[in-house]
Amino acid sequence: MFKRRVALLVAIAFLMTIIVPGFLSAPTKAVAAAKNPIVFKIYWGDSNAEPVDVWKTPIGKKVEQITGVRLQFEFIVGSDEETKAGIMLASGDLPDLINAHNVVNKFIEAGALVPLDNYIAKYGKNIKKWYDAKALKKLKYPKDGHIYYLTPFREESDPLYSFAGFWLPIYVLKENKWPVVRDIDTYFKIIKDAVKKHPTYNGKPTIGFTALTDSWRIYVLMQQPLRLEGYPNDGGWLIDEKTGVVKDSYTMPYAKTYYKILNQMWNEGLLDKEMFSQNYDQYLAKISSGRVVGFYDERWQIQSAIDSLEKQGLYDRIPIAMPVLKKGVKRDRYNVVTMGTGAGISITKKCKDPVAAFKFLDRMAGEDILKLINWGIQGQDYYVKNGKMYKDAKQIQNYMNPDYRKKQGIGGNIWFAFPRPPFDWTYSDKSGKISWDYSDQALEQRYKPYEKEVLKVYKIKSFKDLFSPTWNSPYGYGWDIKLPDDLQAIQNQADDLQRRYIAKAIMAKPGEYDKIWNEYLNKMKNIPIKKVIDFRQKEIQRRLKEWN
Fold this sequence. Notes:
This is Extracellular solute-binding protein family 1. It comes from Caldicellulosiruptor acetigenus (strain ATCC 700853 / DSM 12137 / I77R1B). By secondary structure, the chain is of the alpha/beta class. The chain folds into 2 domains: 38-155 and 340-443, Periplasmic binding protein-like II (D-Maltodextrin-Binding Protein, domain 2); 164-334 and 449-479, D-Maltodextrin-Binding Protein, domain 2 (3-Layer(aba) Sandwich). It has 24 helices and 17 strands. The strands form 6 sheets. Strands 2-1-3-14 form a 4-stranded mixed beta sheet. Strands 8-11-5-12 form a 4-stranded mixed beta sheet, sandwiched between helices. The chain starts with a helix and ends with a helix.
């Protein structure tokens, strides 16, 4: 009897060695990974990204536990992505992973990045769920046909707000009986009247119109004439969506007309006298003060200023985007939806374990992690009822608090650079949208009381309803075309000339504007910008043919 029991115990022990490891493999591996994570160094070359180490947040720690990977971040200092890229490539000092952002082509041309094609085919379980063959085809580098990064699907705006526009504060809209401002002349007249009626605010002069001109962010001033002509943000290029014909905006006739309006406002004292010397923080501080009447910008760049106004309770000073156009233009393209081909996260040739690094990137596209980084921690940031994800009142309050999201690790531009589907897609278990922001509950709850009052006055459900329907670009984003170094140098030359002369023209004394503009056009003739146009046109036409 005793021998039978011993034999039985031995048999059970043997079975346990076979069954239990398989049965407990996931939690066992997770515990082991948490104790001994693989550490990858990553350089974050996006000068726009807030340098927040998400791996130190509660959600980041859970991601580390699930993936078995810890990231050590190096963020770019300053905003010169190109210079930093040159230094890294010259020294050969590369990390394991890199978000090369606007200069990824430099790393590709230098042979510094690992092609991902074979890894996607072999290990891309989650990636192939979101990126079909057509999407992967778009991500191939035109010169050699390889994929070097996986661009996250990008939405230029969420369902609640327009991506960009010409902004006016609520009190001004109210005083003008709630107009939908579609005409640039009307827009500036409203600004003039507002400054005349309210010359000061909190003891400081009211600013009629300001602009963001700090470093590369000056692009929002450069693109204003294109927006008014009804073009999307294609990086300063006018693109025919059917033929692929490309024109540059450097010398477009309407640019002269528009900047002359700003010149007149400058001489009338209606433009911000510091707008060509202020930095980004100073620009945001002015909007946050409530004394700016008008400006053009993209919402993501001014969100912190809106948050600040809300915290101060200055609801009547919060700006609302308007679909302003040049007279005679019927349709705006402030909102675009498409799959961009700009950079995501790449694996460098110096990576100590490229297979493990790719498996990590694929794991980041897993639905459990997507829920974690977009919805938060179950029980803390959302709850599940009848298989559906929801947020209660407190969880919604926390989610809408940017300080809480930052501390908890929910959302943020670091997570958004990893491979992911569009936020409005649905999880395979039908529990909800990829991001809570796109859920039905969010559409009902995200708007604050003051916003609901404005929507009610305008008789609309979303602030996007003030604009033309979102446009689906057949060629992607014109701004994410990567130029060879020689052509990039030509475009940089043209950009620098444009920036100098537009500032000079806007600040010109009365009667000097035309002279300065003609001088600018003559100097632009010396730059062989047609080479850049021809390259871009060839790429746009390739995209139109292959993507559609």
